[in-house]
Write a structure and sequence with these properties.
The chain is of the alpha+beta class and 153 residues long. Helices cover 32% and strands 19% of the residues. The chain is built from five helices and five strands; from the N terminus they run ααβαβαββαβ. A five-stranded mixed sheet has the order 1-2-5-3-4.
Length: 153
């Protein structure tokens, strides 16, 4: 859905304000597609969308989200994933279970799962990928009630 955490929201609001009929067409939504296959609890989730672009704002937003018990769902630009993950580790701790889903439904689809600190080691600026990440990203974190204890099954 291009109107979820996207500039499409403004277009829809303007169309509604102008009296136009807005008809949704079912289709892929990266957040829900990734959530369905991420392996984290799906009975309750909190969609955050994009975090603020600067570290200070991100850390403030993450502090407000820290106690939410539902799985947290974020979008992240590939060029900003490392700094975002670093702020997540700083605010939420490195043991919280995390999943980065990349290039969903495409040839190079990937789910990288593990404790948040390991995910940072993989995708951070000094990580195994040297901070080079391409493609559309969706990041999931276990909620606070599961932080490090939740295991599938």
């Amino acid at each position: 859905m291009p109107a979820i955490s996207d500039p499409g929201t403004q277009l829809v609001a303007a169309a509604v304000a102008a009296g136009c009929k807005v008809v949704p067409v079912p289709g892929p939504c990266a957040a829900i597609t990734a959530l369905a296959a991420c392996g984290l609890p799906t009975d309750s989730f909190h969609f955050v969308g994009f975090l603020p672009p600067k570290s200070h704002g991100r850390c403030q937003a993450l502090q407000q989200l820290a106690s939410i018990s539902a799985t947290l769902v974020f979008y992240a630009p590939p060029h900003g994933l490392g700094p975002i993950l670093a702020d997540m580790v700083a605010v939420l701790g490195g043991s919280r279970r995390a999943v980065v889903a990349r290039e969903l439904t495409k040839l190079h689809e990937e789910f990288y799962r593990g404790p948040l600190a390991d995910v940072l080691d993989e995708f951070g600026a000094s990580g195994r990928r040297n901070g080079v990440v391409k493609g559309e990203m969706s990041t999931k974190l276990c909620g606070s009630c599961y932080a490090s204890s939740w295991q599938p099954g």
